[in-house]
Write a structure and sequence with these properties.
Length: 187
């Protein structure tokens, strides 16, 4: 049986949830987009730096703070054991009554702010800092693909932040966005 060596199913859920959230939101997105993108895009576009270096710096420093907040959420009472999808019935106050889920939601908000700032910087750099003789279709593939991915993140991240905010409101302020008893939809 899975998790039989742990003798605690909550700990198994905590490990799986923490691993997934850290890998997706704090390894893949910041390292692939932020790390390699910030290194390779200026090289490929032959520019000295990204278009907004201070926004780039802010985006960078939000990631470790969000990661620390997410790590602390694992040590608060029962920890976050709701799965990486943060499915609404499993994140409700009845299932996870401790503040660990709130800390994880705040950490994901900070990670989302970092991704939006990085995405704005990528789009701006790919469009505004190319060499004047280069047309858009002559820009190398990686900067254009990162700019398109960044555009998709700019569109998607506020929607995800809104859903996380609704979860936070359901947990702490007795709203019923995801509660079927109050007229909400858990799916």
């Amino acid at each position: 049986r899975p998790s039989s060596w742990l003798h605690n199913h909550g700990l198994y859920n905590l490990i799986i949830t923490s691993h997934a959230l850290i890998m997706i939101f704090f390894m893949v997105m910041p390292v692939m987009m932020g790390g390699f993108g910030n290194w390779l895009v200026p090289l490929m576009l032959m520019v000295p730096d990204m278009h907004f270096p201070r926004l780039n710096n802010m985006s960078f420093w939000f990631v470790p703070n969000a990661l620390i907040l997410l790590a602390f959420s694992g040590f608060v009472e029962g920890g976050v054991g709701a799965g990486w999808t943060i499915y609404p019935p499993l994140t409700s106050i009845e299932f996870l009554g401790d503040p660990s889920m709130d800390l994880a939601i705040f950490a994901l908000h900070l990670g989302g702010i970092s991704s939006i700032a990085d995405s704005l910087n990528f789009c701006s750099t790919a469009i505004n800092m190319r060499q004047s003789q280069r047309w858009v279709h002559k820009i190398p593939m990686l900067p254009m693909s990162l700019a398109i991915t960044a555009l998709l993140l700019i569109i998607a991240m506020p929607v995800l932040a809104g859903a996380l905010t609704m979860l936070l409101l359901d947990r702490n302020f007795a709203t019923s966005f995801f509660d079927p008893v109050g007229g909400g939809d858990p799916i």
